[in-house]
Design a protein that fits this description.
With about 160 residues, the chain is mainly beta. Strands 1-7-3-4 form a 4-stranded antiparallel β-sheet, with no helix packed on it. The longest helix is centred in the N-terminal third of the chain and has 4 residues, at about 10-15. The chain has one helix spanning about 10-15; strands at about 25-30, 40-50, 50-60, 65-70, 75-80, 85-90, 105-120, 130-135, 140-145, 155-159.
Amino acid sequence: MNQRVQRANISAEQRRKVLPLDDVEFFAEGKQSPNAASDNLYYYTSVKKQADLDPKFIKVKIGTHEVTLLATDPGVVTNVTDANGNYYRWNLTSALPTTGLAAGQTFSVVATYQVKNTVQTYGVEEQSGIASYFYTLADKKMIPILPPKDTTPTRCVVE
């Protein structure tokens, strides 16, 4: 099958199902703290172990500024797998406008992944997402450990 179908033409139930080689998109919106600007931005996503996703690219939109970063570009995405899940950290810093991320600035991303495989359990469907959030770093030498022990990037190591 090579016919592209518009999202609006697929039922909500069908959009929750994936097959190997399907592309899936994660949509997220964020807002920078009104108290501070930032010169960096990261997007973190985690999914259950059975959802094996291969990062392809991420579209970043900040105001009218829009950039697409490829997962194959050095430093753009880091992914780690353990017994509990698959974890993806997108470094969006190179997609920021030259002025950086202004205080109170809103932004959005669409991260695209290709499904590498799925564990087929007939008659059983389950949600595979664990967490998804944005963060900035006050000190760019501090990077959160993947996978984090909780859902906030508070555990850091000095690079």
